[in-house]
Amino acid sequence: MTTYKAPLRDMQFVMQDLLNFEKHYQSLPDCEEVNQELIDVILGEASKFSEEVIGPLNAVGDEVGCKMLENGEVRTPLGFKEAYQQYVDGGWPSLDQPAQYGGQDLPMSIGLPVREMNGTANWSWAMYPGLSHGAVETIDEHGSEEQKAMFMEPLVSGRWTGTMCLTEAHCGTDLGLLKVRAEQAADGTYCITGSKVFVSSGEHDLAENIVHIVLARLPDSPPGTKGISLFIVPKFIPEDDGSTGARNNVSCGALERKMGIHGNSTCLMNFDGATGYLVGEENKGLNNMFTFMNLARLGTGLQGLAHAELAFQNSLAYTKDRLQMRSLTGPKNPSGPADPIIVHPDVRRMLLTQKAFAEGGRALIYFASTQGDIMTKSDDPEARELANHVLDILTPIIKAFLTETGFESANLGLQCFGGHGYINEWGMEQNVRDARIGMLYEGTTGIQALDLLGRKVLGTRGKALVPVTSFILDFCKRSRGRKEMRPYLKTLVRLTKRWKSLTRTIGFAAMRNRDAVGAASVDYIMFSGYVLLGVAWAASAQAAYRKLEQGTNEEAFYRAKIQTAEFYFAKILPLTTSLLETMSAGPDPLMEMDENQFMF
């Protein structure tokens, strides 16, 4: 089984040295008292929970999985329910939730590291409370006052959990095809009928109630995505006093048999005239659901970081201990029969790649969380608008890039173990299986890529990209006074200019052939991710140089930051060159072959 130790020192580096969270909180209303001492206490207690309570359940969840009982109820793996109750008793679900509903009203950027630790220790378990955040945000932003009074406090406290019910067996990502129907009842509620698939945490025994956020179609609604409405459908219909009442006509029809995340119940949910409550206006459901989906996409990006971190920690420990062959430059362990495999260059390549993706990804997603803070808490309208624009671009990149590199890291972690990684004793093959879903749910990498390039960048004639590229170029301009930074900055300026010119080139090509967007989109989003991670590593190196100049007793830690930045710029960032080539090839190599010529 895997072991997990929360990377508190690296979290502190990102929060203190890199992003200066304390200064950030001073600029937000009602956050002035949030200081590093408070942050350290929260993260310290959260690390104990992740390491000691849910981490040991990771292998249990994978081996045992969820069980569907004869009455349609779902039993989670041994220990999951008790861990969830401990989580609720500790007040963790309410950490960054609104105070008016019983939350602690701390910034999103404090809640996110807690979710990172939970997810790295045990992603299957972490999904149960994780989806409730999106349900809370959706109801808070789009629900009526009556709905907020009915659902918010139990969700915020963790007594109830939330899900999102989007797709159907015939739909996939094309939600315009959905058929689940909603008909208004005499009392103003709605009867929801049909089935949803791939519903994470759709049925379980952890909480008193489960609140499903459901997309459905009203009679005579317009076809396609313009005719979708959004509904709250609870497992138990709440009583006026807030207690759970009668069982609703919603049930789990089956548990999906999956490649990974066995400890989480992925359900086919049947709605048989279930009572539902309309959220927002009719036929505006997809727009309202994006509140939930965007949070879920950032959460899935966090999953990529989690699998990279878990792979790195476990493969690092193994490669320091495993003896095999001698170093090409002479024995490094002369008293032993062989050298530890960490001395070999290719093993170093795999370890440093995992480290670069995990620590760089942490810097990137923590930065995104600060933009979320500004967007939700700042009293400066211009700052909120800018943060919204930046987060709009970062969200698909973080979701796609961090899940792709997280899966790559999981595979590299397994590779470090050799044959031992392929068997389940060490937990590395579980990490690979669990990581694979990240590139699929909440919109595949291809869907995120089309959203970024087609809808957000080209759909705004490149204007949406300006805040991000301007930020990079401004960072380079501010940092050029330090000579050690100049090689990084030169590369970043060149790639950022290519990013802008490439966008124009694809845009012009799309005027002639719209397939140019689809042909370039995945390479485009990966190129974007590599550049942004380059910024994260350049900024990390700059912060490390600054600390070394000031004097520190952690010189090895900060030297490692600089050395990892050098590795990233020398061995990983050059992948952008091949991506530029493949994007420039256009759609013809993909689209010229007639479909009948695909044969075997």
Tell me the fraction of residues in β-strands, as a range: 5-15%
Q: What helical percentage do the residues reach? A: 55-70%
* Poorly predicted regions: none
What is the oligomer described by this structure? Answer: single chain
Q: Find the count of extended strands (DSSP E, 2+ residues).
A: 11
The helix-and-strand class reads alpha+beta
**Gap between N and C termini:** 41 Å
Q: Give a quick account of the main beta sheet: strands, pairing sense, barrel closure.
A: 7 strands, mixed
* Rg, Cα atoms, Å: 24 Å
Number of helices: 20
Shape: globular
Compute the average pLDDT.
95
Q: How would you describe this structure to a colleague?
A:
The protein is α+β, with helices and mostly antiparallel strands. The protein has a domain at 444-587. It has helices at residues 8-18, 21-26, 36-54, 58-64, 80-89, 108-121, 123-142, 145-157, 285-321, 345-377, 381-416, 419-422, 428-436, 445-457, 466-479, 486-512, 515-550, 555-572, 575-584, 588-591; strands spanning 67-68, 74-75, 160-165, 181-184, 190-200, 209-216, 229-234, 236-238, 244-247, 250-255, 266-279. Helix 3 packs parallel to helix 6 (108-121), helix 15 runs antiparallel to helix 16 (486-512) and helix 17 (515-550) runs antiparallel to helix 19 (575-584). The mean pLDDT is 95.
